[in-house]
Design goal:
The complex is a heterodimer. By secondary structure, chain A is α+β, with helices and mostly antiparallel strands. In chain A, 25% of the residues lie in helices and 33% in strands. In chain A, helix 3 (98-107) crosses helix 4. Chain B is α+β, with helices and mostly antiparallel strands. Classes of the chains: A alpha+beta, B alpha+beta.
Chain lengths: 354, 355
């Protein structure tokens, strides 16, 4: 198993680059510890697949280096990098039994039959595949097949890293949680470096100890699920994580104080005066309450989801969404709202001001 | 304006796809067909549209029998889960196509396409081909085409299913606004209870080819008339346990999990209790909460909420709490159950009032 370091990586699919948009990936620096569980999260087009292909060796980056245990592997091919990869759709041999499917990667490496047998049984036990080992893989359901794909990735102990590329796409929604818990449990048991690529926040946050959020070819935050929820470092993280996402409103910063119109907003940050082309305030719907004074808003729409109300309001600077308990009374026309200062942040040119 | 299904049935070979269905949809309403795949949503929509003939029964539009009248002869629009657009046409031509067929003047077409494109944020894409658009923009184009003519009936068959989560959130919010000042009946099929709750209107819960319940969306959610309707209208899945009542106390059968209720109209005996995940939390909620210990199976984190699966006795439970709560698999943790929010069902799975 390995520690993985990505150093000053940038990649472009073009032969020459003149502007920001020409880069699929920009200035990526990551340290992935040996045995950690990580996720790469972002919408389609954010660069996460490019990054995955760089780690696996399918793409050579335009700039920068990849190190496995401090050894430079930038010029090594995928086979030399010794990686296990699990894809969106099950990759298995339909005509083989479940046992032979799991044994295949080990046979290819010339392992003795005894060794193979004990490894296969160990993995089959973890994935609850033991009772189906002698069945043909072709008769299995989609999630049964994907379990075998997972097993094939996990059966080898000599790999540097196991990479998962949207592995639960084909799984029935009602069964997803079972495979999610299996994957987490497996990570706790076998302690290998695992990287999970997805556009689905639940997948990423459930699996990973640390999540790398990507946006337009850049890393916008690396943090724990709590960090991403409680303290987004970039407006994109606030918007993308959580449902509904963070409210982002234009604000004015003057002499270290933050204002929306003439209303002073208290945050617990120390605001430095700097020249930004735009300054904004970010507050999640969970941390806003109706109050006697504060920012004047008009109530636009109240949706009741059964467990809470989502209240859409409008202030002079734009839309503010508020989350409130289902049982709470909501003002009907005009009201004032106030922000919980613990979770109110200011952003300069989309990045948190600290 | 109204759409009425009278004793509609649909059989394909020996298989029944739709059991006898009676349903009346009124003017200017959005109606959600909620159910899992194969519940019969698409079959019902095809019959409503006239794309498919029922094996039995009649369809009335404005009290006029339209059974057997083809879709071309009826003023209907439909949007599917897959983004269906004419690949060789520009976005403008795609949206304009239903009006071209109606031989509407070019000036008028331009005006109407411009208006709908603005509403669906497609103004900047009008000259592009569908293949140059993102999934969300392609589906907006299909929506715009469905909305451009003044259809009496607009059928949307899981229109957001193929979109990623943030786009879904955004479009789900915009959709009801699109119908606000139109004279039409909207039918919207989805597998997701959240879609129904956020869109509002009326909801029909569907299970295995039958409509289980139809009514105001929030009422169907809060007062499911039976266990099946409650199950269909719960995401994450509802916790269900067999319980017995004696005096004013309830206990889960074969388990040490017990609670009391103050007043009761219920006879002693056996019941099924349904507990929605958000009524089991890692913090206290409500005045009547019960503490239980659970062994953690997994914490699923959605970004702003935590869905924690745990075991207690012989049952698996699902809890849903606000905020991010990471619990270690295998640990024993405390949960609080809001007893006042339980749903009780009798031996025939009908909802019973307990206060």
């Amino acid at each position: 198993m390995s520690k993985i370091t990505l150093k000053e990586l940038s990649h472009s699919y073009l032969s020459t680059q003149s502007k920001k948009d020409d880069w699929a990936l920009r200035d990526v620096d990551i340290d992935w510890k040996d045995g950690g569980a990580y996720a790469l999260l972002g919408p389609s087009g954010c660069g996460k697949t490019t990054l995955l292909n760089i780690v696996s060796g399918l793409i050579k980056p335009t700039k920068g280096k990849i190190l496995f245990n401090n050894e430079d592997v930038t010029n090594k091919n995928p086979v030399e990098r010794n990686i296990a990869q699990i894809f969106q759709f099950p990759v298995i041999y339909d005509t083989m039994t479940v046992y032979d499917n799991l044994a295949f990667p080990l046979k290819n490496r010339g392992m003795s039959n005894n060794e193979i047998n004990s490894k296969v049984l160990e993995i089959a036990e973890m994935l609850e595949l033991k009772s189906t080992l002698s069945n043909k893989a072709s008769g299995l359901t989609a999630d049964g097949k994907q379990k075998i794909s997972l097993g094939r990735g996990l059966v080898r102990t000599d790999v540097n890293v196991i990479m998962f590329d949207e592995p639960l796409t084909v799984i029935d929604p009602h069964l997803k949680w079972i495979l999610r818990s299996k994957l987490k449990e497996l990570h706790q048991k076998i302690n290998r470096t695992m990287i999970y690529v997805t556009h689905d926040q639940t997948e990423a946050l459930t699996f990973a100890e640390q999540v790398v959020v990507m946006h337009e070819g850049q890393i916008v935050q690396i943090g724990t699920p709590v960090d991403l929820f409680e303290k987004p470092k970039h407006t994109f993280v606030g918007h993308f994580i959580g449902s509904p996402g963070m409210n982002i409103l234009p604000c004015k910063i003057s002499k270290g104080e933050v204002y929306i119109d003439d209303n002073k907003i208290t945050t617990h940050q120390k605001i430095k005066d700097k020249n930004f082309s735009k300054t904004e305030i970010g507050i999640r719907p969970e941390f806003i309450t109706f109050s006697k004074e504060g920012i004047p808003v008009k109530i636009v729409k109240v949706s009741n989801t059964g467990r809470h109300k989502i209240i859409e309001t409008k202030c002079s600077k734009g839309k503010i969404k508020i989350l409130s308990k289902s049982s709470n009374e909501i003002p009907t026309d005009s009201a004032f709202v106030s922000f919980n200062k613990e979770f109110t942040y200011t952003y300069g040119d989309d990045w948190i001001i600290e | 304006m109204s759409l009425e299904l009278r004793d509609i049935k649909k059989k394909v070979g020996q298989e029944t796809h739709i059991y006898s269905t009676n349903l009346k949809l009124e003017k200017n309403t959005i109606n959600i067909l909620l159910g899992s795949t194969l519940a019969g949503k698409t079959s019902l929509m095809k019959i409503m549209a006239g794309l498919d003939k029922p094996t039995n029964g009649e369809i009335f539009f404005n009290n006029q029998n339209v059974t057997g009248i083809k879709v071309q002869k009826r003023n209907v629009s439909m949007v599917y889960q897959q983004f269906i657009n004419y690949q060789n046409f520009t976005v403008f031509e795609n949206i304009a196509s239903p009006l071209k067929i109606l031989r509407i003047a070019n000036e008028e077409i331009k005006k109407r396409v411009g208006k709908i494109a603005e509403l669906l944020k497609l103004s900047a894409m009008l000259d592009k081909k569908p293949s140059e658009l993102s999934g969300g923009q392609q589906q907006r184009t299909a929506l715009a085409r469905a909305l451009i003519k003044d259809s009496d009936l607009i059928l949307l068959d899981e229109p957001l299913a193929n979109l990623d989560f943030k786009l879904r959130e955004e479009l789900r919010e915009e959709l009801p606004k699109l119908f606000e000042d139109r004279e039409c009946i909207v039918v919207y099929a989805t597998t997701e209870p959240t879609d129904a709750l956020l869109i509002g209107g009326y909801t029909a819960t569907l299970l295995e080819g039958k409509i289980v319940q139809y009514g105001n969306t929030l009422e169907v959610y809060n007062k499911p008339n039976n266990l099946n309707s409650a199950k269909v209208f719960s995401d994450p899945p509802m916790n269900i346990a067999e319980v017995s009542k004696f005096g004013n106390s309830f206990s889960v059968n074969n388990d040490n999990f017990k609670w009391k209720i103050n007043s009761s109209k219920l006879k002693d005996g056996n019941y099924t209790v349904g507990i929605r995940p958000h009524n089991i939390t890692t913090y206290k909620e409500g005045n009547n909460s019960l503490e239980i210990k659970g062994k953690i199976l997994i914490s699923e984190l959605s970004g702003s909420e935590s869905l924690i699966h745990f075991t207690n006795g012989k049952y698996n439970w699902v809890s849903l709490s606000n905020g991010i709560h990471q619990k270690k698999i295998g640990n024993l943790e405390t949960f609080y159950i809001n007893v006042d929010e339980f749903l009780y069902f009798d031996q025939n799975n009908r909802l019973v009032n307990y206060v």
